[in-house]
Structures are given as C-alpha cells and as structure tokens.
Design a protein that fits this description.
The structure is a single chain. The strands form three sheets. The protein has a four-stranded antiparallel β-sheet with strand order 1-8-3-6, with no helix packed on it. Strands 5-4-7 form a three-stranded antiparallel β-sheet, with no helix packed on it. It is an all-beta fold and about 120 residues long. The termini are far apart. The protein has a single domain, classed as Sandwich (Jelly Rolls), CATH 2.60.120. Strand 4 and strand 5 form a beta hairpin. The chain has strands spanning about 30-35, 45, 50-60, 60-65, 70-75, 80, 85-90, 95-105, 115.
Length: about 120
C-alpha cells in the first residue's frame, strides 16, 4: 500500500503577501484550535501577534481586513493568516465552516488580540 502525500502550502508569506516574522527566541508552544462558524457568523475584529495557519475542513471562509482587503478560502484549502493586521473571519456561505488553526507562540502568549472598539465602525 502506498501512502499519498499532498503538500497543501509552503510559503514564507501570509495570504496577503506580507513576509512572516522571525521565530521568537526560546521554546515554542504549539496550539491547534478547531473553529466552527455557523452560516452567517463573523468573528470580532482582532489581530494575531503570532504565526498561524489553518486548513478549511468544510465550507468557505472569507478573511476581511479592516483596510478592506479580503480573500475567500474554500474547503480543503490551507491559509496562512495575517500577523499584526486587524481582520475578521466571515462565513458568507450557506453551510457551517469548520477550520483547524495551528499557532506557534511562546508558552502562555496571547494568540489573538480582540478589538471590540472597532465593532461599530
């Protein structure tokens, strides 16, 4: 039996073309989160101070930056998140989005910084 390997992504940039930052010094803490977005759901405005990437397991997820840039990722696609850029995720589709995200951070570091002050803009 043969095991099939498919490289989903290999990059040194986030989806918007910005270069990824250098690794922090010290031991990393790896975290994996599964996010489930019902149809029509949006995250709050936020940014990530750490590198992260994910795979859309189901549905279509649109990442919208506060400056208006956006990109939609489809089922099976890998995405490398923007770092330090205020954005949110939106499920504009008709079925739930299931997204597995992988974070690389210093132990105990915040991986998501919310911006509730931007919610009414």
């Amino acid at each position: 039996m043969t095991i099939k390997t498919t490289e989903l992504i290999r990059t040194c940039e986030s989806w918007d073309g910005a270069p990824l930052p250098d690794f922090p010094v010290g031991k990393p803490e790896l975290r994996v989160l599964r996010l489930e977005f019902p149809a029509g759901a949006k995250t709050e405005w936020h940014h990530h101070p750490v590198m992260n990437y994910g795979i859309v397991q189901q549905g279509e997820l649109t990442i919208v930056c506060k400056d208006g840039r956006e990109k939609t990722f489809y089922e099976g696609e890998a995405l490398v998140e923007v770092i330090g850029t205020v954005h949110r995720g939106e499920n504009r589709g008709l079925k739930p989005v299931v997204l597995n995200m992988f974070y690389f951070a210093s132990p105990g570091a915040e991986i998501t910084i919310p911006h509730p002050e931007l919610e009414n803009e």
